Amino acid sequence: MSAAERKHEFVDVLRRQQIEEGLAADRRLDGRKANETRELSIEVGPVVKANGSALVRLGNTAVMVGVKILQGTPFPDTPDQGVLTVNADVLPISSPYEEPGPPDEDTIELARVVDRGIRESHMVDMKELAVEPGKKVYAVFVDVAVLDVDGNLFDATSYAAVTALASARFKKVSVKDGEVVQMEEMVKLPVSTIPVSVTAGKVGEFLFLDPTGTEEAVMEARMTTTFDSEDNLCATQKGGEGFFTPEEVLRQMEVARAKAKEIRAKIKEAVKNAGKE
Amino acid sequence: MSKIQRKFVVPGDLVVKGDFEPVANAYRDADAVYALKVGLSEIEGDKVRIIPLAGRYIPRIDDPVVGIVTDVNAFAWTVEINSFFPAFITASDVFGKRFSPERDDLTRMFNMGDVVLARVAAFDRFKDPMLSVAGPRLGAIRGGQLVKVSPVKVPRLIGRRGAMTKMIEDSTGTRITIGQNGYTVITGPPDKMLVASQAIELVETDAHMAGLTETVQAFLTKSMGRNAVIPEPDYDGE
Lengths: 277, 238
What we know:
The complex is a heterodimer of chains A (277) and B (238). With 277 residues, chain A is of the alpha+beta class. Chain A contains five helices and twelve strands. Chain A has helices spanning 13-24, 105-120, 153-166, 213-218, 246-276, and strands at residues 40-44, 52-58, 61-72, 83-90, 130-132, 136-148, 169-176, 179-188, 196-203, 206-209, 221-227, 233-240. In chain A, the strands form three sheets. In chain A, strands 1, 2, 3, 4, 5 and 6 form a six-stranded mixed β-sheet that branches. A four-stranded antiparallel β-sheet of chain A has the order 10-9-11-12, with helices on both faces. In chain A, strands 7-8 form a two-stranded antiparallel ribbon. The longest helix of chain A is centred in the last third of the chain and has 31 residues, at 246-276. Chain A starts with 12 loop residues before the first helix and ends with a helix. Chain B is an alpha+beta fold and 238 residues long. Chain B has three domains: 5-52, CATH 2.40.50.100; 64-141, CATH 2.40.50.140; 145-224, K Homology domain, type 1 (Ribosomal Protein S8, Chain: A, domain 1, 2-Layer Sandwich). Chain B has helices at residues 91-95, 154-158, 163-172, 190-205, 212-224, and strands at 5-9, 14-17, 21-24, 26-29, 32-35, 39-44, 47-52, 64-72, 76-80, 87-90, 115-124, 127-132, 139-141, 145-148, 175-178, 183-187. In chain B, strands 8-9-10-12-11 form a five-stranded mixed beta barrel. Chain B has a four-stranded mixed β-sheet with strand order 1-6-7-3, with no helix packed on it. In chain B, strands 2-5-4 form a three-stranded antiparallel β-sheet, with no helix packed on it. In chain B, strand 8 (64-72) and strand 9 (76-80) form a beta hairpin. In chain B, helix 3 (163-172) runs parallel beside helix 5 (212-224) and helix 4 packs antiparallel against helix 5 (212-224). Chain B is flat. The A-B interface holds A 10-18, 21-22, 25, 27 and B 68, 70, 80, 111, 113-115, 141, 143-146, 185, 190.
């Protein structure tokens, strides 16, 4: 699908006016302030056959993620590292504006931004995923199914993917006389940090977190920033036709850093509670 | 008024046997009347009508409708009116017979995304509905909030002789413009518009329930505070 095609609702001028006037008064359509995110709920392990899974709801947006851990061959340039792949699918039932077929630009961008957050924060220690360097490594597949679209797929998907990875359990394998032997012991992925992405939209001079579907249809630009557990910035993505001034970028980074802390605590709690059961 | 019997029906359901006249969304076959839509059947005297529970707007000539301009070309505007068909307003309806696509720029009147109050000027099953903005109060709506209501709930939102609309307007101090297609524009101060839109949502969700007027009245009293002037409802025969 080309970028010119409209993939969101058609927003009338009255609604647009209302959004703009509301942002000036720090009151959004759903009653939130600019720096508030929607209600976040995280369900860990809804897919019993996956190694790890999570269902995340961010307002009306719902994303399901499953993690499968298999064995594969490493890439030639990284023979001593495991393989990590994020694949996203926005289902046709998730929105009236989604069609069946191969993933479009936006879906590929979604998978890439989520992948970048996980990869560049070094959430999973890829070196520990090597079974026999150059020959056999663990391959981690993160499969995303977007169930409901109401804006901010980046963050909802990122939270779901990270939760699924952090809660994943798999059977270790070892190589004996060239044969792969699966062991009974269930182990966790070597997770060292929890990356959290925070997305902001921009309308006029106003920046706001966690845009809804309607706000996405109106906003001029968006910025996604991902922070690791030490509050280091590890990935960014900018989208839309509009622009951010350097001051806006710096200000937004601090807002996002603080918000990421809150959300990381929620993800950690969800993973911890799931481990108890 | 004779007693009204209500029954939930789906298309093809037998509503009543005997000498009854189908008035709306029902048909007659031999000596019985059957439903054409999912809804509630009403038998009043010898007349049978089905009140649909859902559905899009079916244009009728002279209906006032609120639409959203979705496209502009050199000769006409395309308007979304929550129907099966896209409606259009011709340029000559606005600029007159002397309209020239070279001289007149249509976007100066209405642009994409504009909300217009119009009247259905012509419609039949072979042509898309044509709207007209010639008339008092018709034309672009430049302020307020658009609320999308299901067209089948519009009669409940209006109430008997406009009682429901008047009650919401008077107690919130807003102005409400209802299109027969369900698109509704509220104008007034932002906080009052919020209460009015919530009241309209309440009408929509509770439209098929008994005691709707009282529910909405209670909501308005609660939302607008003790000092609000809530007019006595004009009972609409529930």
